[in-house]
Each structure stands twice: as structure tokens, then as C-alpha cells.
Amino acid sequence: MKTELTPLSIFLSYFKSLLENRELASSFANHAGISIAKIDSYLSANPRRSYTEGVKFMKD
After folding, report:
1. Is residue 24 domain-resident?
2. Which residues form the domain of 35?
3. CA 45 to chain centroid
4. Would 12 be classed as within a structural domain?
């Protein structure tokens, strides 16, 4: 069985890897109005919003 990844899932996977950096994670959490501890659950529960917030965050 072949698993195909969507552009959204690819972005979120890459974005999660960037947020392994504590400074970036802290900055993103402040940007999104969440705590650092809730980043993973936020990204999982809100994939489309996470994409939008992630793109805005990376542009800033």
C-alpha cells in the first residue's frame, strides 16, 4: 500500500521539524497565542489553521 502525502501534511511535517528548535517554538507559540507545550496538539487539531499561521510566522 502506497501512502501519498498531501502538500498540507508535507508542510506540517517540515514545520514540526523546524519547531524542534526551542527558540523557534517559543516564538511560534507567542505568535499563535498558545503555550509551547500545546504546539503538537495545536498542529494536529488545527492543520489548516496551523498552515496559515505557520506561513505567516515564516514570513515575519
Report:
1. yes
2. 7-59
3. 11
4. yes
- What tens digit of pLDDT does each residue of 6-60 get? 999 999 999 999 999 999 999 999 999 999 999 999 999 999 999 999 999 999 8
Q: For the chain, how many residues are written? A: 60
Give Cα separations from 38 to 6, 7, 34, 44 (angstroms).
24, 23, 7, 10
Judge whether 4 and 43 are in contact, CB under 8 Å: no
- Quick one: cell of 32? 499563535
2, part of any domain: no
31: in domain: yes
**DSSP assigned state of 20:** T
